[in-house]
Amino acid sequence: MSQQMLEQNVNGIRMQVTIAGEGPPLLLVHGFPLSHRMWQAQIAHFQQQYTVIAPDLRGFGGSDVTVGTVSMKQHAEDLKELLAQLEVEEPVNFCGLSMGGYIAWEFWRHFPEKLKTLILCDTRSDADTEEGVSNRLKMVDLVLRHGPEAVASAMIPNLLSKTSRDLYPEIAQDLIAEIEAADPEGIAASQRGMAERDDFLGVLDQIQIPALLIVGSDDVLTPPDIMQEMAVRLPEASCREIPRVGHMAPLEAAEEVNQAMEEFLAVAR
User: Fold this and answer.
1) Is the dihedral of CA 188, 190, 196, 201 positive or negative?
2) Is residue 269 over pLDDT 90?
3) pLDDT band at 167 (very low <50, low <70, confident <90, very high)
4) Which of 204, 202, 231, 199 is nearest to 215 (CA)?
5) What is the pTM of this model?
């Protein structure tokens, strides 16, 4: 099946989106500071049964950059408007990784009628600690002064497990290239937005839709215990731990992640 890349005018910016396949809508929301390209294995797999929608978020990939701060709410509003532009009227299966998960909470808060299911990969629901906020703002400063090259290689041990780095060095190389190609202002804007994001841990029990949580066993940024706690608090959630992978489970173990998603979505249909 062929993939289609479109540009849509969304809330004052030009937004690039990849669409593939036919069927119920599956929205894939990438992590920071990446683009829709992180989902290639999922796009190829799920286009057989779903209409896969994989946008580049504001500030990333082929979409326009907004200088300043881009909140998680802004990203959620962009996705809602994008779906409207694409004339997707039925509720979506929303799959987000890391920052994509932060956006999912805001999407649920503001547009619950647009959600059928949630798939949350390697993410969390609490707000940043003071140290977390400080680290994000340090990265903002570093990237704006010296460009994404200053942080790309240093991010890899946090994104990929040692097993993945040893066995599949090309994944690390591709991620480094993707991060280095990102716009410094785009990185800074969403990093500021993540530093300011709301805490959703206390309201997870209100999210009354089926949810699948996927986490790499070796994820150092959002470890399994954090995601298992979220699964306990969500009324209709299960948690799948993928062995020997890190924060980029859909990239590091595409087949296992695709299988977990497929099983979950088959029941949800």
Assistant:
1) negative
2) no
3) very high
4) 231
5) 0.98
